[in-house]
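Task card 7
Instruction: Convert sequence to structure tokens.
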Amino acid sequence: MRSPRLEELPPPPEGKTGWPWTVDSDPLPDLMPDGFAWPKISVVTPSYNQAQFIEETIRSVLLQGYPNLEFIIIDGSSTDNTLEIIKKYEPWITYWVSEPDRGQSHAINKGIVKATGAILFWLNSDDLVLPGAFERVAKNFMDNPETKMVIGQVKVIDAQANEISELISDFTTWEDLVTSPYNKVRQVSTFFARSLFDECGLINEGIEIAMDIELFSRLTRNHKPTVISDFVSAFRVQGQSKSFLNIIQGYKEVDRFRKQLLKGNNLLPKYSAASSENWLNLAKQEKFDKSDRIDCLKHAVRINPKIILKRKFWLLIPSILMKQ
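Output:
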């Protein structure tokens, strides 16, 4: 499918202007500068009760001006007016379904299995693609035929799509990636070669929060990604985003699969030390209640018992216990 033009799409809601409401990307020619066809990009969007944002997400995909696009939406039986919005754009959506699923990871995997593009992109239903992103990513894949992943940079936006900060992706080595509990590469700006999933498997459906971190642990072991400086997507921070509500659960998941991945590997002590420091930093944060902060301290000790020898561990205890 060729991306539609702005005038072909339904008009935006009243008061909505700018990208992707009243602005689109310039349409690309049918062929790339070298005369070859543009590689098909398959966008998979898992969706559940994000009617407030999904129309903006859909339009940011459709208005890329890209000549070879496949757009797949996997909805988990939303109960708000998400389906009404999807049907509004149905002529330009390659495939969509709304049915119960086993969670976000399962929904994404359903979309990946359905996709037929050479390049896959997973975009959550409250995030955005920035103008011209598909063109820049496709050219990087074609200019670097050995690469299996192209990772761009990310703008952070609020519920009203105002830019509030940036998320920078970086990659040095696989060892550096897997010895850190933090997210050093951003799923929201990562485009995958389809062949990578054929080789390494799909998303781990046993992980609910940190599935992207686990995925990168597997995919980058033998395939170094190409990281570009371009900002290609926008990550929305809003009160119901899963990463905001479940940060502690996410780090527990990272500990679990990192220990499995690095079992018997000399990198495990380095990871354990970094993770325990992260748990101490979480325990300092007053946005968590007392029980959560105590839980963080326990996890710091569980992952690295030597942390109790550090003075900052003991200094944290009275500040947490005295909190009302």
